[in-house]
Amino acid sequence: xxxxxxxxxxxxxxxxxxxxxxxxxxxxxxxxxxxxxxxxxxxxxxxxxxxxxxxxxxxxxxxxxxxxxxxxxxxxxxxxxxxxxxxxxxxxxxxxxxxxxxxxxxxxxxxxxxxxxxxxxxxxxxxxxxxxxxxxxxxxxxxxxxxxxxxxxxxxxxxxxxxxxxxxxxxxxxxxxxxxxxxxxxxxxxxxxxxxxxxxxxxxxxxxxxxxxxxxxxxxxxxxxxxxxxxxxxxxxxxxxxxxxxxxxxxxxxxxxxxxxxxxxxxxxxxxxxxxxxxxxxxxxxxxxxxxxxxxxxxxxxxxxxxxxxxxxxxxxxxxxxxxxxxxxxxxxxxxxxxxxxxxxxxxxxxxxxxxxxxxxxxxxxxxxxxxxxxxxxxxxxxxxxxxxxxxxxxxxxxxxxxxxxx
Length: 407
What we know:
This protein is an all-alpha fold. It contains 18 helices and no strands. The protein has one domain (48-350). It has helices spanning 3-24, 26-61, 63-79, 84-95, 99-109, 115-124, 130-141, 145-166, 174-178, 186-199, 204-238, 241-255, 263-271, 273-281, 288-301, 303-314, 322-346, 370-406. The relative contact order is 0.14.
């Protein structure tokens, strides 16, 4: 049996298995679907849409090209990617998954990146945003503000480390490294900005409409993956597959003297980081240090749900997914290591001030914390923002279809 036929059989069997599981557990699947939908329209959509629209506009106006010329002397020697990678990196950290992949794919389509450069760039520009790490994980799940510093530092240091390692990927691309020997030139950056703007012949209204349409298309795709993997995770749990597969993880955890109670949460986190992080925080038999290490790994690995989103975005280009997947494993290992190294200086030496937070009742969130306020606002007004944005999207799409039918 050749590889293509084997792949067909595996994919078909997986689809049939999933359909059977949906028929057997309809109520559980429905609840998981609602959970994924709520997460998408309350938090994911309203938090990512502005970043995606602004990014599209910045690319169209040439601002990204301007930043790229300025950052060329920094990004080339360190990561062997063009200066525009600095913009992608910053936007990826500020807005979270999968904005880094979206912008990398867009720049690759415009020819500002070679395929090797794009594969290097996408490997370290996809990460969790600080609001999710501090607000959702540190405060929302662990009720411990100090843990957010450790998780964030471990996450972004491991991200930076992977970027340095990926510079050796595709070593035959000698021309890429030679281009980096330039000095910072504001004049050259302004010239590049002007040329890019002149080259863009779309009116501002058309550019804005395209930005809204493209961004909402991406977010609709993301929403589908969030719901799908929420359902898959729940079905695997109810069918007992999670318990069986987590048995292998117990052996790995035992090698490092970690509690067995972390095996099921780790397996859940490999599929979806939000649910996994929440389950890890509830593993009472594990020490807090071990919980933080496993959470750092889960955040860096990013889960199959987000990886599937990235794979879908990269499929529109010639960028290969495998280097990104390997980078996620490497970042997960580095994140766990950094969390271990940062634990004593950042937590144990200051633990007295945090003991009170560790015994707070479930559901408590500091009322004065601005990140908690942000999540409260998202939960209250996020759905309204999502509905209005979708209405705008339908209006733009209908207008364009009407104009196309008249020509």
